[in-house]
Structure formats: structure tokens, C-alpha cells
Amino acid sequence: MTGPPEPAPDAPGPATVGRGRLGRWRDQVVALGWLVAVWSLLWGDLNWANLVGGLLVGGAVLVFYPLPAVSFGGRLRPGALLVFAGRFVIELVSASLHVARIAVQPGYRPRGAIVAVRLRVPSDLNLALTAEAVSLVPGTLILEVDRDSGTLYLHVLDTHGPGDLEVARDRTLTVERRIVRAVGSAAELRRIETDSPAKGTRS
Amino acid sequence: MIATIADWLGAGCLVAGALLGLAAAIGVLRFPDALSRMHAATKPQVLGVMLLLLGIALRLRSPADLGMILLVAVFQLATAPVAAQMIGRAAYRSGRFDRGLLDADELAERGSGSGPAGPA
């Protein structure tokens, strides 16, 4: 977003542009549905007053705080989604225990490193989801996102040499692959499966 | 019977979550620079909150409370990484980190001028 406007060499544009008014309407309706659901959950029960109130508040939010359209060209694959969720929980637990351990280990000063990882599917949605997931899994934290080239800059905690940087890079790309398998479109999926894990990721 | 088991599981989750929260606090206190501290503020902290919520859910067991707990969990998962990223980015840009602790810095090699010496 704040990166230099250097065009990515092979970025295929942020997914499909312009699915027409119908697609935009569908997105708005889905968003409204979510807002009504959140509103009802906040009040704690589902009745007509909450439904109407949720529709009013949700509609107002959508009108007064419009968001840029997120092009969701993929579809949900429940099996892959389960795999992603399961691995996510496992990695969240192991990452937490790891950080907790080095936090209480006496006299230990962890070293870190900042690595650049160029994602293979540079769509906004994938970038955001991967960044979120990566922040919570072992030893990595997003510092900067270069939206134009689809590059994430990560801070890696507790490194012991150059090998650990490659491990972090590979792990990030693995997370990306799991996300694309779960929610990506067919074209993105092909891209992920055919590309060999890119090593030279510097922009 | 089942209620007793749920109560005990909930109690276990509460203790585990509290311990993770404590470890996160110690990490924030002890880690050498802002970037490392953000690691402590995201991972153990988020898992700690999740365990606390799970423990509360196992104790309360009413639909209205479960909905609220689910909301808290979703928002926690969605916002903690964003907050950590904003703080990490601000720390990096203002140079508030220990370069001696970094094995590599590929963000500086980008050469866009938004490094620590770049515009505020």
C-alpha cells in the first residue's frame, strides 16, 4: 500500500475485475448478513427487534463506511478449509509455547531477522489472509506489506543462522498454499500447484 | 456428571490461559526490542485469550454467552495481528529496534527509502 509503485514483473492483476453489478450486490448482501448476525450476537438473542435494528445499523455502516470491493473469485472447499484450520490451531499452540518458553528462559536474548517473501498469488484477499495467518504461526510477524508486488516483509524471532530464514520463507509459502487450497479460485490454485516454491523472493 | 467434567476442563483451560497470559507479559517485559516484544504480544497472548474463552464457555454453557464468546474470539484473532503489524511497522520506521540483533534485513535492501532513515 505504501510501497514504491514498481510494477511486479508477472503479477496478473488483482484477480478478476468487474464482475458487474450483480456481484457487487451479492457482496453487499453478504456483508449485511454478517453485520446483522454480529448485532444479534452482541445483544445475545435473536428476535424481531434485533433483526430490524441490525438491518438498520448494518445498512448505515455499509452506506457511511463503504469499503473497497474485495474480489472473491474463489470458492470454499470444506476439506481444505478443515486442513487449514487444523494446522492453524496446531501452529498457534506450538508458536505460543515456543515464544512463552523463550520469554521465561533466564538470560536468553533471542536474535531475529527480517525476510521478504513474495507470494505467488498477489490478490488483496490472499495477501490479507496470509498476513493474518502468518502473524499467528511460528516465529513470524508482518512488518510491511508491498501490495504492488505481493510481498510480505516478516520479522522472524529466534533465528540461529541463514537456514532459519529459508525455513521461515518456506513456512510462509506453505501457509499461503493452504489458504489458496481452502478459498482460492481455480486459476490461483493452478498457479500455486505448478509454481515450485520460489526461493529468490527479493523484489 | 458431564457438567462436572466440563467444569473441570473449563477450570484447566482458565489456568492454562492465565499462565500463557503471564508468559506473554514476561515476554513483553524481557524481550530486547520492540519487534521481539510484538511476538510475545501476539502468539501466547492470543492463545491465552482463546483458552480463557474456552474455559468460560465450558463453565457458562448458555447460548447467549456462547455467541458473545465466539464474537470475542473472532475479533481477537482478526485484530491482534493487525495491531502487532502497525506497532511493528511504526517501530521499524522510527528505528526503534536493535539492528545488532538482526541476522538479516531484507526490508532495508528494498531501497525504497522507507527504512529507519526514511521519511517519518
Q: Can you walk me through this structure?
A:
The complex is a heterodimer of chains A (203) and B (120). Chain A is built from 6 helices and 3 strands, in the order H-H-H-E-H-E-E-H-H. By secondary structure, chain A is mainly α. In chain A, strand 2 and strand 3 form a beta hairpin. The N terminus and C terminus of chain A are likely disordered. Chain B has one domain. Chain B is 72% helix and 3% strand. Chain B is elongated. In chain B, helix 1 runs antiparallel to helix 2 and helix 2 packs antiparallel against helix 3. The C terminus of chain B is likely disordered. Chains A and B meet through helix 1, helix 3, strand 1, helix 4 and strand 2 of A and helix 1, helix 2, helix 3 and strand 1 of B.
Write the layout of secondary structure elements.
The complex is a heterodimer of chains A (203) and B (120).
Chain A: H1 20-43, H2 48-64, H3 78-104, E1 112-118, H4 124-136, E2 140-146, E3 151-157, H5 162-183, H6 186-194
Antiparallel strand pairs in A: 1-3, 2-3
Helix pairs in contact in A: 1-2, 3-5, 4-5
Chain B: H1 2-30, H2 34-60, H3 63-93, E1 102-105
Helix pairs in contact in B: 1-2, 2-3
